[in-house]
Amino acid sequence: MSGSDGADTRSGPRVVLGVSGGIAAYKACELLRRFTESGHDVRVVPTDAALHFVGEATWAALSGHPVATRVWDDAHQVPHVRIGRGADLVVVAPATADTLARAAHGLADDLLTNTLLTAGCPVVYAPAMHTEMWEHPATQDNVATLRRRGAVVIEPAVGRLTGADTGKGRLPEPAEIYEVCRRVLARGQDLPDLAGRHVVISAGGTREPLDPVRYLGNRSSGKQGYALARTAVARGARVTLLAANTGLPDPAGADVTAVGTAEQLREAVLKAAADADVVVMAAAVADFRPAAYATGKIKKKDGEEPAPLALVRNPDILAELSAGRPRPGQLVVGFAAETDDVLANGRAKLARKGCDLLVVNEVGELKAFGTEENEAVVLGADGSETPVPRGPKDALADRVWDLVVTRLA
Ligand code: CTP
Question: Could you tell me the distance, in angstroms and rounded to a whole number, from the CA of residue 359 to the centre of ligand 1?
Fold first, then answer.
């Protein structure tokens, strides 16, 4: 395979790594390493500001290619057009507020922004900056513009920033950015089909406290919900993940909020759903909670049987959302965990809950909960029935997004 300059000797996918001028530029060295060690052919395009943090020699040595930094270097090779055109993926990490602004406004004042304008392939931005800069309406508008045009902009992580302060704005770990890029590349040259969409996903299982040391819980691991989050990030969505007691590492690029009980999950879902295009209730929500919470540990008493446990119903979040639809045209997806009469129960549940799609799983001791694989039938309110054969949870997640995308269109 050869590019327009006829000089292509690559074997793996061709990646352009744009580096802009933030302290996190040093983490891009690790990202570069991951790409090259897994067979990608990487051209690094640092901005002038990035070179204040990490020098040209480092990028050249790690990528195995000379580093073009200016539009005027090797002008006879027309680098401002050639680099972008030949890429399978452009990833900008870190993407500063300034680089996001220049990209959103279509400026072409350096080699990186020229490359962004000529790239026909998917583009991933991994922003890193101080919290105030990230939250500023100017930055948020620029991010929304880039997402609307089809870019994948992964949410910054929360943690230690440049100085002593902490907050949102940290560059996600290189391994996580790499993982997002790997998924985007695996989708080929299709531009991200959830770009510009906000999706809310609940995952895990709620816990309903009985006393300070005990709770009623369930066996949901959260893995299917996390697979939905990871795949939605790679398809360009802004992802809000509401995680109920999962203990899993945050998926890169998603905004994660931890919740405990069904009541807390309900509050978080309704808040996040206000501007969501899609809500997926993958969490296993406890249908009941103890009628009373004991502020001290419940003690056994010699010679006495324990008092029966009184329970009350929890709100049905999925049914409430489906009936209320906080945003017009919003799609609501439910999950159904069934042990018997799986399809018949699934159909009845879809009608009862009023959602658009219901992913019906058969569960049991060794089925679905905690495992790496899943199989399901996705039922549609339009009467459709889509079987998804046993496979990785990511594959089921992608199938769910395929069905969502056709319905959003
Ligand atoms: N769900 C919910 N709120 C609840 C219970 C369940 O939002 N209080 C959602 C789950 O997130 C899931 C769907 O409803 O998307 C179905 O969950 P499931 O446990 O299978 O159904 P139940 O409502 O518990 O129905 P049943 O008791 O008949 O199994």
Answer: 12
